[in-house]
Design brief:
The complex is a heterodimer of chains A (319) and B (253). Chain A is an all-alpha fold and 319 residues long. Chain A is built from 14 helices and 4 strands. In chain A, strands 1-4 form a two-stranded antiparallel sheet. A two-stranded antiparallel sheet of chain A has the order 2-3. In chain A, β2 and β3 form a beta hairpin. In chain A, α12 packs across α13. The two termini of chain A are 26 Å apart. The two termini of chain B are 22 Å apart. A 6-stranded mixed sheet of chain B has the order 6-9-10-3-11-12, sandwiched between helices. Chain B has a 4-stranded antiparallel sheet with strand order 2-1-4-5, covered by helices on one side. A two-stranded antiparallel sheet of chain B has the order 7-8. Chain B contains 8 helices and 12 strands. By secondary structure, chain B is an alpha/beta fold. The chains are: A mainly alpha (319), B alpha/beta (253). Chains A and B meet through α9 and α10 of A and α2, β6 and β8 of B.
Chain lengths: 319, 253
């Protein structure tokens, strides 16, 4: 029964994107046979992981009817604060990470609070906070990368390799996709998110505190963005002030490729996971194809447009 | 002339006013409803109907006046408070979320949980589906080729209204506020909705029926309250008036 249920879920959720993943894989592997080597696939998924973690949060937020353009800045700011606390002020790494994650929750709260209380579009709120949070990173770092080398358990667990080969990032990617899927599909909060983004007035009429739902989702999204930032920071051993620039749009692109609506109320976490993998495949495949890397975003743009057209077609057919 | 709080009037709004800045949307209105009574709330645009029901459903707090529910003074600071005492509001466009399945709509905001492995809270989907089917069945709207696992988007206006009514009945609402339930409906669907409203009353709910269509309201209401420019101008039992008289009162104000 569980299997048939899963099948049914996949048929609706992320099925179209899965096809796209397969088609891309076939195309790239024909062009370069090393594309499908396990080693290369691991690299692709690892590359997709950081973006995928951010995109999971962004998807939930879009379902709740809001955008977050500040995720790329938070992706840099929290690890940067941790790096400064740890490397310059000798704060224990675990404490420095906790402070950074708490900061992310606070930044998400600010996004949500301004959006709901001032009643302005979150696109505008987070456009503003994107710039403000980025400015904070640059000011704190003095424009320079800061080292965050540590052999502690926490840095290994977040950004290391299991058994020296398998990136922990992938585990975290799967973990946060799982958590987000669970929240969306199997909690009452998930239902309230869909209601809030789908028809806010109806949600209010049945007594849902839509402000609380939105602020909480903003905070979760920021948390994931910061966490993804740690994955990268601990992998590289340093934090650069311009980390994560453009991730806000890449995360939205991943969500949209996966079938999440820009209008709220509708979205798929599994689709987003595939969407993130597609962006990883393109980045990797373009290199293997020997095409100029300048084409990366252009290719991704084509995929975004095609995906939205297909998704629209599918949802019309379903009606 | 106003009757005081008594057991008959389980909802009693006493001298309720609502100002928006200098605009007086509602001016010293007395409104009451008995258990299992259908009260038609009628009046022209801007009469104050929707302000009145927004106060009663917890969306607005009154500038002046007191609300009694089952003899006790109540203070609704949010729709949640009104729902908790048993007041449901359904609005033609606002009751349901199109992209959610019927069962998720019925339990929206009141989702049942079970504990997975003893400690992980998890939506009790089986129960939601089962109970949603029961909710639709109880009000007599099952078997219309509608599965509770379908999204609401595919439903007709009448079917949507039926789901909203089914939800109110399922949660044993003491008072259901229905805002324009028959607007933009076909004749056939209108007839069905009016029937469902009568059935809702029979299952134990009182109903406030807001509509511009006097004919629809008159056909099922027990009493009619007429508002004009924020004031109550008439409160008539159906047995003591006619459709024509109601229309005339509204027109002449």
């Amino acid at each position: 029964m569980v299997v048939t249920k899963l099948k049914k879920g996949f048929k609706v959720e992320g099925f179209g994107v899965l096809i796209a993943v397969i088609v891309l894989a076939v195309v790239f592997s024909i062009a370069n046979s090393s594309f499908l080597l396990p080693f290369n696939l691991l690299i692709i998924i690892r590359m997709a992981s950081e973006l995928g973690i951010i995109a999971a949060g962004v998807t939930l937020l879009m379902i709740a009817g809001e955008f977050d353009l500040s995720v790329g800045s938070i992706y840099a700011l929290s690890p940067m604060v941790t790096a400064i606390l740890y490397s310059k002020l000798n704060v224990p790494i675990i404490l420095a990470v906790i402070v950074g994650l708490m900061l992310a929750l606070a930044l998400g709260f600010i996004n949500g609070f301004i959006t709901t209380k001032a009643g302005i579009p979150s696109f505008v709120t987070t456009l503003g906070t994107m710039m403000i949070y980025r400015a904070l990173v640059l000011v704190l770092a003095g424009g320079m990368p800061i080292k965050i080398r540590s052999h502690s358990l926490i840095s290994q667990a977040i950004g290391g390799n299991i058994g020296g080969v398998f990136p922990a990032a992938i585990i975290w990617f799967l973990f946060f996709i799982g958590i987000s899927y669970y929240i969306l599909k199997y909690t009452s909060f998930g239902n309230k998110m869909c209601a809030t983004g789908g028809n806010k007035k109806a949600a209010i009429a049945v007594g849902i505190n839509t402000t609380m739902v939105k602020i909480t989702t903003f905070m979760f999204t920021s948390f994931l963005a910061a966490f993804a930032g740690y994955v990268q920071a601990f992998r590289l051993g340093s934090v650069a002030p311009l980390n994560g620039r453009g991730f806000e749009l890449a995360a939205i692109a991943s969500s949209v490729i996966g079938g999440t609506s820009l209008l709220g109320g509708v979205g798929s976490i599994i689709g987003t996971a595939f969407g993130a993998i597609i962006t990883g495949m393109i980045r990797n495949g373009i290199v293997l194809l020997g095409v100029s890397v300048y084409w990366q975003d252009g290719f991704l743009g084509i995929i975004v447009i095609i995906a939205v057209i297909i998704n629209m077609f599918i949802s019309k057919r379903r009606r | 002339m106003q009757n005081k709080v008594n057991i008959d009037n389980f909802v009693y709004m006493e001298g309720v006013s609502k100002y928006f800045g200098k605009v007086i949307a509602l001016d010293d209105v007395y409104f009451s409803i008995k258990p299992r009574e259908i009260v038609g709330l009628v009046g022209d645009n801007g009469a104050g109907k929707s302000t009145l029901i927004k106060i009663l459903s917890g969306l607005y707090s009154p500038t002046k006046g007191v609300i009694y529910f089952e003899g006790k003074k109540v203070n609704f600071s949010s729709p949640r408070d009104a729902i908790n005492v048993g007041i449901e509001t359904t609005h033609q466009d606002l009751a349901l979320v199109d992209d959610l399945e019927i069962h998720r709509n019925i339990f929206m905001g009141r989702e049942p949980n079970r504990l997975l492995g003893g400690f992980i809270p998890c939506l009790d989907k089986q129960r939601m589906i089962r109970e949603a089917e029961k909710a639709l069945e109880n009000i007599g709207i099952q078997g219309d080729n509608v599965s509770v696992e379908d999204t609401v988007r595919n439903l007709s206006g009448g079917e949507k209204q039926a789901v909203a009514i089914g939800r109110a009945a399922y949660f044993k609402a003491k008072l259901v506020i229905m805002d324009e339930p028959t607007a933009a409906m076909s004749l056939k669907e209108t007839k069905k909705i009016l029937e469902l409203m009568v059935r809702l009353k029979e299952t134990g709910s009182a109903i406030i029926f807001i509509s511009h269509n006097i004919h629809h309201v008159f056909s099922i209401a027990d009493r009619l309250t007429i508002l004009s420019r924020g004031k109550k101008i008439a409160d008539l039992k159906k047995s003591e008036t006619t459709e024509h008289e109601i229309s005339t009162i509204i027109m002449n104000n």
